[in-house]
Amino acid sequence: MESSTATAVRRKVARPRADALRNRERIVTAAREMFVEFGPEVPLDEIARRAGVGNATLYRNFPDRDALVREVVCSVMDRTALAAEVALTETGDAFEALSRFVHTSADERVSALCPMVQSTFDKHHPDLEAARERLEEQVEGIMQRARDAGQLRPDVGVGDLMIAVSQLSRPPAGTQCAGVDRFLHRHLQLFLDGLRAPARSELPGTPVTVEDLRRPCPS
């Protein structure tokens, strides 16, 4: 029978050290910033340099580029879902929670990161699918609460929301990101005001779902 001392030693060894967790978080933060600035092909040693860690530390946490990109995308989705959840807990107001999700998504540069899912690695990886499901369920739940409260127009879906956030947070061609940032939340707020019920116009078509976004474009 294993002694309690041996069990305690095993658990102590298995638990990541605080500095190791901080290093991992610094790597993910630096990677997100550089992916947004330079795209997914930025050299990994440059990411390590910005994070203030050695190359060996980066590769110990993320054995290849796909693993790092996946972790960054999952981290962004988790943080945006958490922002909506915290807003709902703090205010009890579903539309306020939805607004916080939209603004946080823009700050996380979802428009720059989401295309990586389609082009750089397995978009069906279990970690990515789990993070995506958490985000979609959280946002759909908040949208439904806002509809039930008469705050959100009934003819919009999660897909509508994701498309709008992605498009509005992407700088127009020929502009500099830093210069456009100061307009970003202003334009997002205009969009959010358009979501409020009662609706002032009838939207063409039907609400866009997440499944609609995943269907391949017709050839």
Automatic annotation (TrEMBL):
<keyword id="KW-0238">DNA-binding</keyword>
<keyword id="KW-0805">Transcription regulation</keyword>
<dbReference type="InterPro" id="IPR050109">
    <property type="entry name" value="HTH-type_TetR-like_transc_reg"/>
</dbReference>
<dbReference type="Pfam" id="PF21597">
    <property type="entry name" value="TetR_C_43"/>
</dbReference>
<feature type="coiled-coil region">
    <location>
        <begin position="125"/>
        <end position="152"/>
    </location>
</feature>
<dbReference type="InterPro" id="IPR049445">
    <property type="entry name" value="TetR_SbtR-like_C"/>
</dbReference>
<dbReference type="InterPro" id="IPR009057">
    <property type="entry name" value="Homeodomain-like_sf"/>
</dbReference>
<keyword id="KW-0175">Coiled coil</keyword>
<dbReference type="InterPro" id="IPR001647">
    <property type="entry name" value="HTH_TetR"/>
</dbReference>
<dbReference type="Pfam" id="PF00440">
    <property type="entry name" value="TetR_N"/>
</dbReference>
<keyword id="KW-0804">Transcription</keyword>
<feature type="DNA-binding region" description="H-T-H motif">
    <location>
        <begin position="43"/>
        <end position="62"/>
    </location>
</feature>
<dbReference type="InterPro" id="IPR036271">
    <property type="entry name" value="Tet_transcr_reg_TetR-rel_C_sf"/>
</dbReference>
<feature type="domain" description="HTH tetR-type">
    <location>
        <begin position="21"/>
        <end position="80"/>
    </location>
</feature>
<protein>
    <submittedName>
        <fullName>TetR/AcrR family transcriptional regulator</fullName>
    </submittedName>
</protein>
